[in-house]
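#struct-pred
JK: can someone run the complex with zinc ion? inputs below
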Amino acid sequence: MVFAHDTEQSLVAAVTLANTAEPPDTLETVADLDAFYERFEFTGRRDRTRAELDEVRALRPVLRSLLTADRDTAADLVNTMLAEARALPQLVRHDRFDWHLHAVVSDAPLPTRISVEAAMAMIDVIRADELSRLGVCADDDCEAVVLDLSRNRSRRFCSTACGNRNAVAAYRARRAADA
Ligand SMILES: [Zn+2]
Ligand SMILES: [Zn+2]
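RT: done, structure tokens with the ligand placed:
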């Protein structure tokens, strides 16, 4: 494991959410947001309204900037996000989760909690100077964010779909060169 479990979980959630904005947009309905909320085991307040959905959608470019920023810019963004949310780190234990950090109360709006959770996770990335774990997909036509948590830092594509497409293209290029 590169980072603590909850940090990795939060990073994967932030990257996944940012990448839903890549075409085709996959966060268009309250049901889409339900699926995200359940997949990443969020707890606490859910409004299930269009307004909440729109705010989460609007958060995506902010997360993308954070996740693809250089280290100093990322530090500034984290500080801004935490200040805007009036974050106050507290150790909490709830549901099946042992002691971990929350920095806003569980009835704060979901977009605020997602934003603060991503900012808190980025604190670990910045402190460990591991920003190179984050980047943009190596596929020429894909702008999705890539999070590389592999031991040998081998991940270059955002998804198996992008990885496979490029493997096929590389194979064809080799075949053409051999012919
Ligand atoms: Zn929690
Ligand atoms: Zn990709």
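RT: quick notes.
The chain has a mean pLDDT of 95.
Strands lie at 90-94, 97-102, 134-136, 145-147.
JK: thanks, will look after standup
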